[in-house]
Amino acid sequence: MRIKTPTAKVGYLLVVIVGIVLTVVPLTVLRFELGFVWATVVIVAAVVVAARTFRSPGESDAPRPW
Description:
Blueprint: H1 6-30, H2 32-53
Helix pairs in contact: 1-2
C-alpha cells in the first residue's frame, strides 16, 4: 500500500487524529497515565506507518530500505 495523493495523505492524518481523540479522551477520564501512554504509542505507530507508506507522485512503488 502506497499513499501518493495529497487527499489520501490528509485523509490518513484526519483518521489518526480523530481516532486518537476518540480513544484518548475516555482513557484520560479513567486514568491520565493510561491516556498519555496510549496516545504516545498510537502517535509513534502512526508516524512509522506514514514514513513507510507516504510517497511522492514520482517515486516508485519499490520498498524502501529500513
